[in-house]
Protein backbone atom coordinates (compact mmCIF):
# COMPACT_ATOMS: atom_id res chain seq x y z
CA UNK A 1 0.00 0.00 0.00
CA UNK A 2 1.25 3.47 -0.93
CA UNK A 3 0.18 6.30 1.43
CA UNK A 4 0.63 9.80 -0.04
CA UNK A 5 0.45 13.11 1.86
CA UNK A 6 -0.55 11.73 5.30
CA UNK A 7 0.55 13.32 8.56
CA UNK A 8 2.26 11.33 11.32
CA UNK A 9 -0.99 10.70 13.20
CA UNK A 10 -2.66 9.19 10.15
CA UNK A 11 0.40 7.08 9.42
CA UNK A 12 0.31 5.71 12.98
CA UNK A 13 -3.34 4.72 12.58
CA UNK A 14 -2.55 2.83 9.36
CA UNK A 15 0.32 1.00 11.06
CA UNK A 16 -1.89 0.08 14.03
CA UNK A 17 -4.59 -1.38 11.80
CA UNK A 18 -2.42 -3.25 9.35
CA UNK A 19 0.77 -3.96 11.32
CA UNK A 20 3.11 -6.25 9.43
CA UNK A 21 0.33 -7.85 7.40
CA UNK A 22 0.62 -5.10 4.80
CA UNK A 23 3.75 -3.44 3.42
CA UNK A 24 3.12 0.28 3.91
CA UNK A 25 5.00 2.78 1.78
CA UNK A 26 4.66 6.37 3.01
CA UNK A 27 5.63 9.53 1.12
CA UNK A 28 5.04 13.12 2.15
CA UNK A 29 3.66 14.47 -1.11
CA UNK A 30 2.80 13.50 -4.66
CA UNK A 31 6.10 15.04 -5.80
CA UNK A 32 7.96 12.21 -4.05
CA UNK A 33 6.02 9.41 -5.77
CA UNK A 34 8.16 7.43 -8.22
CA UNK A 35 7.20 5.10 -11.03
CA UNK A 36 8.59 2.15 -9.05
CA UNK A 37 6.24 2.92 -6.14
CA UNK A 38 3.23 3.06 -8.45
CA UNK A 39 4.18 -0.25 -10.08
CA UNK A 40 4.69 -2.07 -6.77
CA UNK A 41 1.72 -0.80 -4.76
CA UNK A 42 -1.58 -2.73 -4.82
CA UNK A 43 -3.54 0.27 -3.47
CA UNK A 44 -2.72 3.98 -3.45
CA UNK A 45 -4.25 6.02 -0.62
CA UNK A 46 -4.05 9.80 -1.02
CA UNK A 47 -4.74 12.21 1.86
CA UNK A 48 -6.07 15.37 0.20
CA UNK A 49 -5.08 18.35 2.29
CA UNK A 50 -6.48 21.83 1.74
CA UNK A 51 -3.52 22.81 -0.46
CA UNK A 52 -3.88 19.64 -2.60
CA UNK A 53 -5.42 21.05 -5.79
CA UNK A 54 -7.65 19.16 -8.19
CA UNK A 55 -5.14 19.65 -10.96
CA UNK A 56 -2.26 18.25 -8.93
CA UNK A 57 -4.40 15.27 -8.02
CA UNK A 58 -5.29 14.76 -11.70
CA UNK A 59 -1.60 14.71 -12.59
CA UNK A 60 -1.02 12.06 -9.94
CA UNK A 61 -3.93 9.93 -11.16
CA UNK A 62 -2.56 9.97 -14.69
CA UNK A 63 0.50 8.15 -13.41
CA UNK A 64 -1.35 5.48 -11.39
CA UNK A 65 -2.03 2.06 -12.94
CA UNK A 66 -2.81 0.17 -9.73
CA UNK A 67 -6.26 -1.46 -9.36
CA UNK A 68 -7.53 0.87 -6.57
CA UNK A 69 -7.07 4.51 -5.51
CA UNK A 70 -8.52 5.77 -2.21
CA UNK A 71 -8.96 9.49 -1.54
CA UNK A 72 -9.16 10.66 2.09
CA UNK A 73 -10.77 14.08 2.17
CA UNK A 74 -13.41 16.00 3.97
CA UNK A 75 -14.25 18.09 0.93
CA UNK A 76 -15.30 15.90 -1.98
CA UNK A 77 -16.77 18.52 -4.21
CA UNK A 78 -13.54 19.71 -5.87
CA UNK A 79 -12.65 16.09 -6.73
CA UNK A 80 -16.04 14.72 -7.76
CA UNK A 81 -15.51 15.92 -11.33
CA UNK A 82 -12.52 13.56 -11.60
CA UNK A 83 -14.53 10.42 -10.91
CA UNK A 84 -15.96 10.47 -14.42
CA UNK A 85 -12.48 10.16 -15.94
CA UNK A 86 -10.91 8.13 -13.12
CA UNK A 87 -13.40 5.45 -11.96
CA UNK A 88 -10.80 3.91 -9.63
CA UNK A 89 -11.25 6.74 -7.11
CA UNK A 90 -12.98 5.79 -3.84
CA UNK A 91 -13.74 8.27 -1.02
CA UNK A 92 -13.26 7.53 2.68
CA UNK A 93 -14.77 9.63 5.44
CA UNK A 94 -13.67 10.05 9.02
CA UNK A 95 -13.52 7.84 10.93
CA UNK A 96 -11.70 5.70 8.39
CA UNK A 97 -13.24 2.31 7.67
CA UNK A 98 -10.12 0.16 7.81
CA UNK A 99 -12.13 -3.05 7.28
CA UNK A 100 -13.18 -1.63 3.92
CA UNK A 101 -9.55 -0.89 3.07
CA UNK A 102 -8.53 -4.41 4.04
CA UNK A 103 -11.25 -5.75 1.72
CA UNK A 104 -9.93 -3.55 -1.07
CA UNK A 105 -6.45 -4.95 -0.50
CA UNK A 106 -7.72 -8.52 -0.59
CA UNK A 107 -9.65 -7.94 -3.80
CA UNK A 108 -6.65 -6.13 -5.23
CA UNK A 109 -4.47 -9.19 -4.63
CA UNK A 110 -7.05 -11.34 -6.34
CA UNK A 111 -7.14 -8.94 -9.26
CA UNK A 112 -3.36 -8.95 -9.44
CA UNK A 113 -3.34 -12.75 -9.42
CA UNK A 114 -5.94 -12.79 -12.17
CA UNK A 115 -3.96 -10.31 -14.19
CA UNK A 116 -0.82 -12.40 -13.76
CA UNK A 117 -2.71 -15.49 -14.85
CA UNK A 118 -4.13 -13.65 -17.85
CA UNK A 119 -0.62 -12.40 -18.63
CA UNK A 120 0.74 -15.95 -18.58
CA UNK A 121 -2.13 -17.16 -20.74
CA UNK A 122 -1.57 -14.28 -23.19
CA UNK A 123 2.13 -15.11 -23.36
CA UNK A 124 1.34 -18.80 -23.92
CA UNK A 125 -1.16 -18.08 -26.69
CA UNK A 126 1.15 -15.55 -28.35
CA UNK A 127 4.07 -17.99 -28.32
CA UNK A 128 1.83 -20.80 -29.52
CA UNK A 129 0.56 -18.64 -32.38
CA UNK A 130 4.10 -17.68 -33.41
CA UNK A 131 5.21 -21.31 -33.22
CA UNK A 132 2.18 -22.45 -35.21
CA UNK A 133 2.86 -19.85 -37.89
CA UNK A 134 6.48 -20.98 -38.16
CA UNK A 135 5.47 -24.65 -38.40
CA UNK A 136 2.85 -24.06 -41.07
CA UNK A 137 5.53 -22.37 -43.21
CA UNK A 138 7.72 -25.50 -43.11
CA UNK A 139 8.07 -26.91 -46.63
CA UNK A 140 10.80 -29.47 -45.93
CA UNK A 141 11.56 -31.70 -42.96
CA UNK A 142 15.03 -30.11 -42.67
CA UNK A 143 13.31 -26.83 -41.70
CA UNK A 144 11.45 -28.37 -38.76
CA UNK A 145 14.22 -27.90 -36.19
CA UNK A 146 14.71 -24.20 -36.92
CA UNK A 147 10.92 -23.67 -36.80
CA UNK A 148 10.74 -25.17 -33.30
CA UNK A 149 13.78 -23.41 -31.86
CA UNK A 150 13.67 -21.37 -29.67
CA UNK A 151 9.87 -21.12 -29.40
CA UNK A 152 9.20 -24.68 -28.20
CA UNK A 153 11.69 -24.78 -25.25
CA UNK A 154 10.72 -21.23 -24.30
CA UNK A 155 7.02 -22.09 -24.11
CA UNK A 156 7.31 -25.46 -22.33
CA UNK A 157 10.35 -24.56 -20.19
CA UNK A 158 11.18 -28.22 -19.48
CA UNK A 159 14.50 -29.85 -18.64
CA UNK A 160 14.26 -31.93 -21.79
CA UNK A 161 12.34 -31.41 -25.02
CA UNK A 162 12.84 -34.23 -27.51
CA UNK A 163 11.05 -34.80 -30.82
CA UNK A 164 11.64 -38.26 -32.31
CA UNK A 165 10.33 -40.23 -35.28
CA UNK A 166 11.68 -43.74 -34.58
CA UNK A 167 11.06 -45.20 -38.05
CA UNK A 168 12.89 -42.43 -39.90
CA UNK A 169 16.48 -42.66 -41.11
CA UNK A 170 17.45 -39.85 -38.71
CA UNK A 171 14.97 -40.35 -35.82
CA UNK A 172 15.94 -37.41 -33.57
CA UNK A 173 14.40 -34.30 -35.19
CA UNK A 174 14.66 -31.83 -32.29
CA UNK A 175 16.52 -31.96 -28.99
CA UNK A 176 16.81 -29.33 -26.28
CA UNK A 177 18.37 -30.31 -22.96
CA UNK A 178 20.06 -27.41 -21.13
CA UNK A 179 21.09 -29.76 -18.30
CA UNK A 180 22.45 -32.36 -20.71
CA UNK A 181 21.26 -35.84 -21.56
CA UNK A 182 23.31 -38.84 -22.63
CA UNK A 183 23.16 -40.03 -26.22
CA UNK A 184 22.50 -43.48 -24.82
CA UNK A 185 19.27 -42.34 -23.21
CA UNK A 186 18.18 -40.60 -26.42
CA UNK A 187 18.87 -43.83 -28.31
CA UNK A 188 16.82 -45.80 -25.78
CA UNK A 189 13.88 -43.44 -26.21
CA UNK A 190 14.06 -43.49 -29.98
CA UNK A 191 14.42 -47.28 -30.18
CA UNK A 192 11.61 -48.28 -27.83
CA UNK A 193 8.90 -45.63 -28.02
CA UNK A 194 7.27 -47.03 -31.15
CA UNK A 195 7.41 -50.63 -29.87
CA UNK A 196 6.00 -49.59 -26.51
CA UNK A 197 3.20 -47.63 -28.11
CA UNK A 198 1.88 -50.70 -29.93
CA UNK A 199 0.50 -52.03 -26.64
CA UNK A 200 -0.70 -48.71 -25.21
CA UNK A 201 -3.61 -46.43 -26.01
CA UNK A 202 -2.56 -43.85 -28.62
CA UNK A 203 -4.65 -41.08 -27.07
CA UNK A 204 -2.79 -40.97 -23.73
CA UNK A 205 0.70 -39.79 -22.78
CA UNK A 206 3.25 -42.47 -22.06
CA UNK A 207 4.99 -42.55 -18.68
CA UNK A 208 8.69 -43.34 -19.01
CA UNK A 209 8.71 -45.58 -15.94
CA UNK A 210 6.89 -48.25 -17.97
CA UNK A 211 9.60 -48.11 -20.64
CA UNK A 212 12.26 -48.35 -17.98
CA UNK A 213 11.00 -51.79 -17.04
CA UNK A 214 11.97 -53.01 -20.51
CA UNK A 215 15.56 -51.89 -19.96
CA UNK A 216 15.99 -52.58 -16.27
CA UNK A 217 18.91 -54.88 -16.83
CA UNK A 218 20.77 -52.43 -19.05
CA UNK A 219 20.20 -49.07 -17.35
CA UNK A 220 23.34 -47.94 -15.57
CA UNK A 221 23.33 -46.24 -12.20
CA UNK A 222 24.32 -42.84 -13.59
CA UNK A 223 21.30 -42.88 -15.92
CA UNK A 224 18.98 -42.99 -12.93
CA UNK A 225 20.04 -39.52 -11.82
CA UNK A 226 17.73 -38.13 -14.51
CA UNK A 227 14.70 -39.60 -12.71
CA UNK A 228 13.32 -41.38 -15.76
CA UNK A 229 9.91 -41.90 -14.12
CA UNK A 230 9.13 -38.24 -14.66
CA UNK A 231 9.36 -38.47 -18.45
CA UNK A 232 6.20 -37.94 -20.47
CA UNK A 233 5.89 -38.86 -24.15
CA UNK A 234 2.92 -37.79 -26.27
CA UNK A 235 2.29 -39.39 -29.68
CA UNK A 236 2.31 -37.51 -32.97
CA UNK A 237 -0.08 -39.13 -35.41
CA UNK A 238 -0.63 -38.94 -39.13
CA UNK A 239 -4.27 -39.84 -39.31
CA UNK A 240 -4.63 -42.98 -37.18
CA UNK A 241 -0.98 -44.02 -37.47
CA UNK A 242 1.53 -42.94 -34.83
CA UNK A 243 4.55 -41.36 -36.52
CA UNK A 244 6.61 -39.89 -33.69
CA UNK A 245 6.73 -38.67 -30.10
CA UNK A 246 7.19 -35.41 -28.21
CA UNK A 247 9.06 -36.38 -25.04
CA UNK A 248 9.33 -34.01 -22.08
CA UNK A 249 11.10 -33.99 -18.74
CA UNK A 250 9.65 -31.26 -16.47
CA UNK A 251 12.00 -29.23 -14.32
CA UNK A 252 12.15 -30.04 -10.59
CA UNK A 253 9.07 -28.50 -9.01
CA UNK A 254 7.53 -27.53 -12.34
CA UNK A 255 3.73 -27.58 -12.13
CA UNK A 256 2.29 -29.68 -14.95
CA UNK A 257 -1.26 -28.32 -14.95
CA UNK A 258 -4.18 -28.53 -17.36
CA UNK A 259 -2.88 -25.53 -19.30
CA UNK A 260 0.50 -27.20 -19.81
CA UNK A 261 -1.10 -30.44 -21.00
CA UNK A 262 -3.44 -28.60 -23.35
CA UNK A 263 -0.46 -26.79 -24.84
CA UNK A 264 1.38 -30.07 -25.38
CA UNK A 265 -1.63 -31.73 -27.00
CA UNK A 266 -2.20 -28.74 -29.30
CA UNK A 267 1.47 -28.90 -30.33
CA UNK A 268 1.41 -32.64 -31.06
CA UNK A 269 -1.79 -32.27 -33.08
CA UNK A 270 -0.17 -29.43 -35.01
CA UNK A 271 3.00 -31.44 -35.62
CA UNK A 272 0.84 -34.27 -36.92
CA UNK A 273 -0.75 -31.87 -39.43
CA UNK A 274 2.69 -30.56 -40.44
CA UNK A 275 4.00 -34.10 -41.08
CA UNK A 276 0.87 -34.93 -43.05
CA UNK A 277 1.29 -31.77 -45.14
CA UNK A 278 4.94 -32.61 -45.81
CA UNK A 279 3.96 -36.12 -46.93
CA UNK A 280 1.31 -34.69 -49.24
CA UNK A 281 3.78 -32.13 -50.61
CA UNK A 282 6.31 -34.90 -51.30
CA UNK A 283 3.63 -36.97 -52.99
CA UNK A 284 2.54 -34.04 -55.17
CA UNK A 285 6.14 -33.26 -56.13
CA UNK A 286 6.68 -36.90 -57.00
CA UNK A 287 3.57 -36.91 -59.18
CA UNK A 288 4.81 -33.78 -60.91
CA UNK A 289 8.26 -35.24 -61.59
CA UNK A 290 7.68 -38.98 -61.96
CA UNK A 291 5.99 -40.99 -64.68
CA UNK A 292 2.88 -42.46 -63.11
CA UNK A 293 3.13 -45.82 -64.89
CA UNK A 294 6.80 -46.73 -64.64
CA UNK A 295 8.04 -44.76 -61.62
CA UNK A 296 11.01 -43.22 -63.45
CA UNK A 297 11.28 -39.51 -64.28
CA UNK A 298 8.76 -38.02 -66.67
CA UNK A 299 9.90 -36.29 -69.85
CA UNK A 300 9.72 -32.71 -68.53
CA UNK A 301 11.63 -33.42 -65.33
CA UNK A 302 14.23 -35.53 -67.12
CA UNK A 303 14.97 -32.84 -69.68
CA UNK A 304 15.23 -30.19 -66.95
CA UNK A 305 17.78 -32.26 -65.02
CA UNK A 306 19.73 -33.21 -68.13
CA UNK A 307 19.94 -29.54 -69.08
CA UNK A 308 21.38 -28.66 -65.70
CA UNK A 309 23.85 -31.56 -65.85
CA UNK A 310 25.00 -30.58 -69.34
CA UNK A 311 25.79 -27.03 -68.19
CA UNK A 312 27.64 -28.32 -65.15
CA UNK A 313 29.66 -30.86 -67.15
CA UNK A 314 30.65 -28.24 -69.71
CA UNK A 315 32.10 -26.06 -66.97
CA UNK A 316 34.11 -28.98 -65.60
CA UNK A 317 35.06 -30.37 -69.04
CA UNK A 318 33.41 -33.72 -68.28
CA UNK A 319 31.44 -35.88 -70.75
CA UNK A 320 27.74 -36.76 -70.84
CA UNK A 321 26.32 -39.79 -72.63
CA UNK A 322 22.66 -40.23 -73.64
CA UNK A 323 21.15 -43.61 -74.44
CA UNK A 324 17.78 -43.83 -76.17
CA UNK A 325 15.98 -47.13 -75.49
CA UNK A 326 12.92 -48.43 -77.35
CA UNK A 327 10.99 -51.68 -76.80
CA UNK A 328 10.94 -53.64 -80.03
CA UNK A 329 7.61 -54.70 -81.51
CA UNK A 330 5.74 -53.22 -78.56
CA UNK A 331 2.52 -52.83 -80.57
CA UNK A 332 2.57 -56.58 -81.15
CA UNK A 333 2.75 -57.14 -77.35
CA UNK A 334 -0.28 -54.88 -76.80
CA UNK A 335 -2.24 -56.53 -79.62
CA UNK A 336 -1.38 -60.07 -78.48
CA UNK A 337 -1.57 -59.85 -74.71
CA UNK A 338 -3.52 -56.64 -74.08
CA UNK A 339 -2.60 -53.14 -72.93
CA UNK A 340 -2.40 -54.11 -69.26
CA UNK A 341 0.25 -56.68 -70.14
CA UNK A 342 2.02 -53.97 -72.15
CA UNK A 343 1.95 -51.68 -69.12
CA UNK A 344 3.57 -54.39 -67.00
CA UNK A 345 6.29 -54.82 -69.63
CA UNK A 346 7.06 -51.09 -69.53
CA UNK A 347 7.20 -51.12 -65.72
CA UNK A 348 9.71 -53.97 -65.66
CA UNK A 349 11.83 -52.47 -68.45
CA UNK A 350 11.99 -49.18 -66.53
CA UNK A 351 12.89 -51.01 -63.31
CA UNK A 352 15.70 -52.94 -65.01
CA UNK A 353 17.11 -49.78 -66.58
CA UNK A 354 17.06 -47.97 -63.24
CA UNK A 355 18.74 -50.89 -61.47
CA UNK A 356 21.45 -51.02 -64.14
CA UNK A 357 22.39 -47.37 -63.55
CA UNK A 358 24.43 -45.67 -60.88
CA UNK A 359 22.79 -43.41 -58.32
CA UNK A 360 23.89 -40.25 -60.13
CA UNK A 361 22.55 -41.34 -63.54
CA UNK A 362 19.13 -40.25 -64.81
CA UNK A 363 16.40 -42.45 -66.27
CA UNK A 364 13.12 -41.21 -67.71
CA UNK A 365 10.25 -42.18 -69.97
CA UNK A 366 10.08 -39.83 -72.96
CA UNK A 367 7.43 -41.54 -75.09
CA UNK A 368 5.04 -44.47 -75.21
CA UNK A 369 7.68 -47.21 -75.13
CA UNK A 370 10.76 -45.00 -75.30
CA UNK A 371 13.16 -44.34 -72.45
CA UNK A 372 16.11 -41.96 -72.23
CA UNK A 373 19.08 -42.65 -69.95
CA UNK A 374 21.62 -39.98 -68.98
CA UNK A 375 24.97 -41.48 -68.00
CA UNK A 376 26.76 -38.72 -66.09
CA UNK A 377 30.49 -38.26 -66.83
CA UNK A 378 30.48 -41.19 -69.28
CA UNK A 379 31.75 -41.01 -72.87
CA UNK A 380 30.25 -42.78 -75.86
CA UNK A 381 32.34 -45.90 -75.39
CA UNK A 382 31.23 -46.19 -71.76
CA UNK A 383 27.64 -45.65 -72.86
CA UNK A 384 27.91 -48.36 -75.50
CA UNK A 385 29.28 -50.86 -72.96
CA UNK A 386 26.47 -50.01 -70.53
CA UNK A 387 23.85 -50.37 -73.28
CA UNK A 388 25.14 -53.82 -74.31
CA UNK A 389 24.92 -55.05 -70.73
CA UNK A 390 21.41 -53.64 -70.32
CA UNK A 391 20.34 -55.21 -73.64
CA UNK A 392 21.57 -58.64 -72.51
CA UNK A 393 19.70 -58.33 -69.21
CA UNK A 394 16.52 -57.39 -71.05
CA UNK A 395 16.88 -60.38 -73.37
CA UNK A 396 16.92 -62.60 -70.28
CA UNK A 397 13.90 -60.89 -68.74
CA UNK A 398 10.60 -62.78 -68.81
CA UNK A 399 7.50 -60.84 -67.87
CA UNK A 400 4.76 -63.00 -66.39
CA UNK A 401 1.23 -61.70 -66.82
CA UNK A 402 -1.74 -63.88 -65.98
CA UNK A 403 -0.78 -67.23 -67.50
CA UNK A 404 1.44 -65.73 -70.20
CA UNK A 405 5.22 -65.29 -70.31
CA UNK A 406 6.38 -62.37 -72.42
CA UNK A 407 9.90 -61.98 -73.82
CA UNK A 408 11.31 -58.52 -74.37
CA UNK A 409 13.85 -57.10 -76.80
CA UNK A 410 15.03 -53.49 -76.99
CA UNK A 411 17.05 -51.34 -79.35
CA UNK A 412 19.58 -48.78 -78.12
CA UNK A 413 20.95 -45.56 -79.60
CA UNK A 414 24.02 -44.01 -77.98
CA UNK A 415 25.36 -40.46 -78.32
CA UNK A 416 27.75 -38.45 -76.15
CA UNK A 417 29.02 -34.95 -75.57
CA UNK A 418 32.78 -34.99 -75.15
CA UNK A 419 34.65 -31.69 -74.56
CA UNK A 420 37.03 -31.34 -77.53
CA UNK A 421 37.31 -27.60 -78.01
CA UNK A 422 34.63 -27.53 -80.70
CA UNK A 423 31.24 -25.87 -80.36
CA UNK A 424 29.37 -28.16 -77.96
CA UNK A 425 25.97 -29.51 -79.02
CA UNK A 426 22.87 -28.39 -77.17
CA UNK A 427 20.67 -30.84 -75.31
CA UNK A 428 18.18 -31.07 -78.19
CA UNK A 429 21.04 -31.79 -80.59
CA UNK A 430 22.40 -34.51 -78.31
CA UNK A 431 18.98 -36.12 -77.98
CA UNK A 432 18.58 -35.97 -81.75
CA UNK A 433 21.91 -37.77 -82.20
CA UNK A 434 20.84 -40.55 -79.79
CA UNK A 435 17.45 -40.80 -81.54
CA UNK A 436 19.15 -41.09 -84.90
CA UNK A 437 21.38 -43.88 -83.58
CA UNK A 438 18.27 -45.64 -82.25
CA UNK A 439 16.59 -45.37 -85.67
CA UNK A 440 19.67 -46.95 -87.23
CA UNK A 441 19.52 -49.84 -84.71
CA UNK A 442 15.88 -50.41 -85.71
CA UNK A 443 16.80 -50.32 -89.41
CA UNK A 444 19.58 -52.86 -88.94
CA UNK A 445 17.19 -55.40 -87.42
CA UNK A 446 16.43 -54.26 -83.84
CA UNK A 447 17.69 -55.75 -80.54
CA UNK A 448 21.07 -54.10 -80.92
CA UNK A 449 23.18 -51.11 -79.82
CA UNK A 450 24.28 -48.45 -82.29
CA UNK A 451 26.54 -45.50 -81.42
CA UNK A 452 26.13 -42.22 -83.25
CA UNK A 453 29.83 -42.00 -84.05
CA UNK A 454 29.58 -45.18 -86.18
CA UNK A 455 26.88 -43.57 -88.31
CA UNK A 456 28.98 -40.47 -88.83
CA UNK A 457 32.01 -42.62 -89.73
CA UNK A 458 29.99 -44.62 -92.27
CA UNK A 459 28.70 -41.46 -93.89
CA UNK A 460 32.23 -40.12 -94.12
Can you offer a commentary on this structure?
- The chain has 460 residues and is of the alpha/beta class.
- The chain folds into 3 domains: 2-107, Rossmann fold (3-Layer(aba) Sandwich), CATH 3.40.50.720; 137-284, Beta-Lactamase, CATH 3.30.450.40; 299-459, Reverse transcriptase/Diguanylate cyclase domain (Alpha-Beta Plaits).
- The chain contains 16 helices and 17 strands.
- It has helices at 8-18, 35-40, 54-61, 77-80, 98-136, 144-148, 151-156, 183-197, 208-214, 258-289, 299-315, 330-337, 339-356, 380-396, 427-443, 452-459, and strands at 2-4, 25-27, 43-47, 68-72, 89-92, 160-164, 172-176, 206-207, 232-238, 241-249, 320-327, 362-365, 370-376, 398-401, 404-407, 410-417, 449-451.
- A 5-stranded parallel beta sheet has the order 2-1-3-4-5. A 5-stranded antiparallel beta sheet has the order 7-6-10-9-8. A 5-stranded mixed beta sheet has the order 12-13-11-16-17, sandwiched between helices.
- Helix 5 packs parallel to helix 10.
- The radius of gyration is 39 Å and the shape is rod-shaped.
- The model is unreliable at 206-229 (pLDDT under 50).
Task: State the main characteristics.
3 domains; Beta-Lactamase; rod-shaped; alpha/beta; Rossmann fold; Alpha-Beta Plaits; 17 strands; 5-stranded parallel beta sheet; 5-stranded antiparallel beta sheet; 460 residues
Helix-strand blueprint:
Layout (H helix, E strand, L loop, with lengths): L1 E3 L3 H11 L6 E3 L7 H6 L2 E5 L6 H8 L6 E5 L4 H4 L8 E4 L5 H39 L7 H5 L2 H6 L3 E5 L7 E5 L6 H15 L8 E2 H7 L17 E7 L2 E9 L8 H32 L9 H17 L4 E8 L2 H8 L1 H18 L5 E4 L4 E7 L3 H17 L1 E4 L2 E4 L2 E8 L9 H17 L5 E3 H8 L1
Parallel strand pairs: 1-2, 1-3, 3-4, 4-5, 16-17
Antiparallel strand pairs: 6-7, 6-10, 8-9, 9-10, 11-13, 11-16, 12-13, 14-15
